[in-house]
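User: Hi! I have a protein structure encoded as tokens and I'd like to know what sequence might fold into it. I'm fairly new to this, so please keep things simple.
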């Protein structure tokens, strides 16, 4: 059964990676376009708004991946309804690990694979947000130097 878990879990992880890479690429591109427009605008809100949009989009990407895993769990017959499947998926994906809902023995390894996937995808999200934040700080520092 381990091979079956890997045969299903690894392609799902790959799909999540493609999804997160797409969301990250689009988000950073959006930010860079907005940052170029915001150079003339002043104020904290004008500078932070693109960062907030990037954060919301990237979190939506993570939530979409949780829903993908939840759908997989439903297809495998582990859950009958979407809400408990999403709840279980979110607990796995975030590696929270409540343990109040446990999958059947044949599919337990998928929970660990989803947790590993979630840690990696949150790492990508954090790295992208940090890059955007560093750029935002740099832009504001340069703008402050030019005003002096």
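Assistant: Happy to help. Inverse folding works backwards from shape to sequence: for each of the 148 positions I chose a residue that suits the local structure. Here it is:
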């Amino acid at each position: 059964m381990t091979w079956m878990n890997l045969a299903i879990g690894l392609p799902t992880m790959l799909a999540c990676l493609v999804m997160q890479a797409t969301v990250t690429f689009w988000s950073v591109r959006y930010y860079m376009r907005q940052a170029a427009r915001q150079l003339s605008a002043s104020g904290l809100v004008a500078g932070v708004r693109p960062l907030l949009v990037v954060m919301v989009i990237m979190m939506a990407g993570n939530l979409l991946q949780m829903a993908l895993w939840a759908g997989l769990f439903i297809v495998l017959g582990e859950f009958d309804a979407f809400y408990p499947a999403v709840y279980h998926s979110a607990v796995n994906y975030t590696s929270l690990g409540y343990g109040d809902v446990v999958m059947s023995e044949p599919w337990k390894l998928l929970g660990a694979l989803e947790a590993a996937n979630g840690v990696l995808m949150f790492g990508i999200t954090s790295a992208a947000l940090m890059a955007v934040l560093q750029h935002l700080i740099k832009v504001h520092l340069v703008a402050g130097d030019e005003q002096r």
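A useful reference point when you look it over: Residues 108-147 form the longest helix (40 residues). Feel free to ask if any position seems puzzling.
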